[in-house]
Specification:
With about 350 residues, this protein is α/β, with parallel strands linked by helices. The protein has one domain (about 40-340): TIM Barrel (Alpha-Beta Barrel). Helices cover about 40% and strands about 15% of the residues. It contains twelve helices and twelve strands. It has helices at about 5-15, 30-35, 70-80, 110-125, 160-175, 190-200, 220-225, 245-260, 275-280, 295-305, 310-325, 335-340; strands at about 45-50, 55-60, 65-70, 85-90, 130-135, 145-150, 155-160, 180-185, 205-215, 265, 285-290, 330. The protein starts with 5 loop residues before the first helix and ends with a helix. Bound molecules: ligand PBG. The site of ligand PBG has 11 residues, from helix 7. Ligand PBG binds near residues 134 and 220.
């Protein structure tokens, strides 16, 4: 038999049975009808940096991101809320003099974070205020937990002692009116302990967004520059997860769910889409993913250099995170993305 070209076989031999996926891509209207994933402002959570100073400070390691004064924080949060962003997460820069080995300032009811929560909830009662629960901004060692040195000078992050302080920190945020507390410290057992502490004080309505799969990622670098919160010594590899591990994320998911988490988080986001998808398959809880400072910086710098189309790549990166299975995305691009989506 003479050999026939592919074209002949498909177009001439069996014309009525040719399957053409391109028909579903033909016009903008049809594409919009068959689109599986869409982004909207309610998908976003805006991380916000702030400090005690009365002036705003551009963050050198994160172009386009500002560390706000308390007054500006309220104003900027209000603007985000007005364009449809339902929630913000608070990241304070704590003055050096207030940092200590036991991070006492983390549970001070008159501290920067509780004052910010009260002011935010007074100005915008409907805005969902999320707080970061971890010791790194308050700890003079810059670690998420308490640090102990053994006789050989080796560093240990104390788990249960840290969890006790995290419970105090979560209670302090709840008393000030936080809607959701988000433990980002990766200590074992902290979700159950925080849930119990909250319930005992009748804060049964306060939710826990657990950083379930938080990896020891080099992409947090610019964030630590924003808050001066880099560890003074050692790294975070004994508590944050090894980027090589995926099954371990399932283990953490099962634990956080059993411990009473209301929502789960995967962090970073863009390089961890497989993890988002696995957590999505494992749990029925809402899943958040954090597009972290290093991801932001890569997109920002490539766009600033004229190499990439910022709007297109940012929206694509966010869409991919949602497609992988995230319900919510923490992103420094939240406001800009809302602007682009409404164009
Ligand atoms: C600390 C915390 C970090 C981030 C959020 N919470 C840094 C770290 O774990 O070292 C990183 C966020 C980012 O890079 O955008 N508890």
């Amino acid at each position: 038999m003479p050999s026939r070209s592919l074209e002949n076989r498909f177009l001439n031999e069996n014309p009525t049975h040719m399957i053409r996926p391109r028909r579903n891509r033909r016009t903008p209207a049809i594409r919009s009808m068959v689109r599986e994933t869409t982004l909207c402002p309610a998908d976003f959570i805006l991380p916000m940096f702030f400090h005690e100073d009365a002036s705003d400070c551009p963050i050198a390691s994160m172009p386009g991101v500002t560390r706000w004064s308390l007054d500006s924080l309220i104003r900027e949060a209000g603007e985000a809320y007005a364009i449809g962003i339902p929630a913000i997460v608070l990241f304070p820069k704590i003055e050096e003099a207030l940092k200590s080995p036991f991070a006492e300032e983390s549970a001070n009811d008159e501290g920067l974070v509780p004052r910010a929560i009260r002011a935010l909830k007074a100005a915008y009662p409907g805005l969902c205020v999320i707080t970061d629960v971890a010791l790194d901004p308050y700890n003079s060692d810059g670690h998420d937990g308490l640090v102990q040195r053994d006789a050989r000078g080796e560093l240990h992050i104390l788990n249960d002692e840290t969890v006790a302080i995290l419970c105090q920190q979560a209670l302090c945020h709840a008393r000030a009116g936080a809607d959701i507390v988000a433990p980002s410290d990766m200590m074992d057992g902290r979700v159950a302990a925080i849930r119990e502490a909250l319930d005992e004080e009748n804060f049964t309505q306060v939710s826990i967004l657990a950083y379930t799969a938080k990896y020891a990622s080099a992409f947090y670098g610019p964030f630590r520059g924003a808050l001066d919160s880099a560890p003074k010594d050692g790294d975070k590899k004994t508590y944050q997860m090894d980027p090589a591990n995926a099954r371990e994320a399932i283990r953490e998911t099962l634990l956080d769910e059993a411990e009473g988490a209301d929502m789960l988080m995967v962090k970073p986001a863009g390089l961890y889409l497989d993890i988002i998808a696995k957590v999505r398959e494992t749990s029925t809880l809402p899943i958040a993913a954090y597009q972290v400072s290093g991801e932001y910086l890569m997109l920002k710098n490539a766009a600033a250099g004229g190499w990439l189309d910022e709007k297109a790549v940012v929206l694509e990166s966010l869409l991919a995170i949602k497609r992988a299975g995230a319900d919510l995305i923490l992103t420094y691009y939240a406001k800009q993305a809302c602007g682009w989506l409404s164009e």
